[in-house]
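Thread title: Can someone regenerate the structure for this chain?

I was given the following input by a collaborator and told the matching C-alpha cells would be attached. They weren't. Posting the sequence so someone can regenerate them.
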Amino acid sequence: MMQKLITREALQKTKHKKTGSIITLILLIALLFPIKIFAAENNTAIIHSESGDYVVYVKDIKEKFKFAITNMQNADKMQLKYVTSSKDEQGENVIFISKEKYESLTQKGANTKSYIYVKDMNGKDKIEGQEIDFANAVEQSQLQETETLTKRIATKTAKNLKTIEKEEDGVKVTTTLGGLKITEKDGKYEYSLNKVEEGEYKELENIANNINTNADKMNTVEKIKTYKSFYNLYNNLLKIQNWREVQDSQIIQPEDSNKGDTYIIFLNKIAEDGTQTQDVKFLTTNVTEKEGETIETSVEPITVKEAKKLPITGESLALFIVLAVISIVATIVYFRVKKLKNENTKN
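Best answer:
Regenerated them for you:
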C-alpha cells in the first residue's frame, strides 16, 4: 500500500514536471515571438513613390537576390514566382513593387500586409515569409517636404538688435542681443521660439544630431527610418506652436540666453492670397565677455554644407537622399522614385 502511494506521488510529480515544461515552452515561445516581429519590422524600409510604386530595402542583404511576394501568410514556396532584385548605383539591391502589383496584392489597399521570400542567386533561402506592411511606407512627398526645411523662408542672423544696460555689484554691464532677421518683405510673418531642454524638442535635436554624426555609418534602412522619425516629430511639434507676430522683421533672442543654449524657431508666412508657408530654424547662443564689463550675445550664423547623396539608383529608378548640416541640427532628405522593370526568373 505504501509502495502504491509512493508511485502515485511520483507519477503526480512527473505530471507536474511535464506540465511545467509545457508552460515554460509556451512562455518561451510567447517571449520570442514579439522579438521576432520586432526584428522583422526593423529589417525593412518601404518608400512609396508619387507614381504609386513601392521600393523595399532589406537590411544586410547586399548581393543580388531573387524574391517573391504574396498576400498569403503561409504560402507554398513551390508555387511562388521569384523575380530578381533591382540594383541601385551604390550597389544595393532592392525589391521593386509596381503600383499594379501592389493593388493586386492588397486588393487596392484593403489589406496592407504582405509576405516576402528572399533567396540568394544559388537558391539558398535568406528570408522566409517575413511580413511587411505597406501602411508603414515613407511617402516620397514627405521626404521632398523635408528637403526644403530651413530654406522655405529667407532669414539671416544679426547682432546688436537690442541693448540692455544694468549694474551688477557696482559694475555697469551692457548686454547686446542678437537674433534672426527675415529678409523677405512680402506677406505677414509669425514665429514660435522654443528653447531646447527636454521632451520632444530635445528628441528632435537628438535625431538630427544622430544623422549629422552617424549618417555615414547607417545602412539605408536605418537612414530611411531615422528621416521618417524626423519628419513625423517636426510636423507633430508644428501643430502645437503658439504663434506670435514678427515685429520689424526680426526675432530677438531671449535676454536670459546663456552660452550654448539652443533654440528651435518655427516660422509661418501668410501671403496676401492667404497661402501659408511654414519653416523651422535651428540656432545656438554665443556669449562674449569683453574686459568683464560688456557682454555681447548673439546667435550663431546658420551654415549649410551639402553632404554626399545616398543612394542613387541606376537605370529608370532614381532614388536618393541628400543630407545637409545646418548649425546645431538639420536634415534634408529627397527621394525621387520612378518605375523600374524587374527581370523575371524561374524558381
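The two ends are 67 Å apart (CA to CA).
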